[in-house]
Amino acid sequence: MNQNPISRQPLSVTVFTVATNRYLDYWKEMALSADRFLFPSSEVTLCVFTDRFDEASAFAETVSRVSIHVTKIEPLGWPEATLLRYALISSAQECHSSQVLMHLDADMLFEHTVGNELDFRTWINGIALVKHPSFYRTNRSYLRLLSHPRMLLSEFRNRISEGGSFGSWEHDLDSLAYVPKDLRRNYVCGGVWMGRATEFVGLVGLLADRVSEDSRNGIVAKWHDESHLNWFFAHNETTLLPPEYCSTDDTSWLHSLQRKIIAIDKGSDRSR
To answer: Is 62 strand, coil or helix?
Structure first.
């Protein structure tokens, strides 16, 4: 029996993260958890963009399994650190050769093994996005909301204002991140997304151009890079992964699920 040649080769994975200012400290913790849990049987490279080049390079020598590629950039504030990520990833051509490319926010942590269950060859149009945990509901979670009438009323109003979908969509008609109500279905998170190399590079190139055009017109999308990613998802069919891949401690309705990747609670300070 002939074997698929891909199955005989180690899978190569590259993860892109922007980690300037204090976010490099979060990234270090993420890198250690990735070293343990991310695609454990694959060749994994973490490509980090940071202003703390020497510190990141020294840290790279302490990590046992994954490889680390450090790119020096100027310190970025909020929201530039999120808005510019598509352009930064697009420009890092030396990191585009892996079979699977991923984006992870610096403040993510792996809690369980990620990768063995993912088959990139089956991803629709080569891209896999993650259902936003804040807008994910199960039947059990709706039963819980019955005992919190104010929360239930707030969610009902949100769904009406968003055209029946639950999310935080861009409403500015002048922004290229705007999504018409009839296309607002599932809302995805900007913290974790991935794809096959060719399709992923195409995605970041497209969104980098759209963010840049918004900027030239003096427009900043409501949720920055995430708003543009949701525009892409609304107009393109992709694989949709469950919120286990981007969970938070304040989403109590997800506690019945096995959280694979979590976002650290940083409080209200988003400065970078």
So the answer is: coil
HSE, CB side, 13 Å, CA atoms: give it for residue 253. Answer: 15
Highest mean pLDDT range out of 5-14, 218-227, 242-251? 218-227
Cα-flanking dihedrals φ and ψ of residue 256, to 5°? Answer: -80, -10
Which domains does the chain carry?
9-263 (3.90.550.10)
Of the CA atoms within 13 Å of residue 268, those in its CB half-sphere come to: 0
Give the pTM: 0.85
Is the pLDDT score of 173 beyond 80?
Answer: yes
Give me the pLDDT at residue 89, please: 98
Say what the alpha-carbon torsion angle 212, 214, 215, 216 is, to the nearest 10 degrees: 90
Residue-level pLDDT at 253 = 56
> What single string gives the DSSP state of each residue in 139-199?
HHHHHHHTT-HHHHHHHHHHHHHTTT--S-----TTSTT---GGG----EEEEEEEEEHHH
Residue 194 contacts residue 130 (beta carbons within 8 Å): no
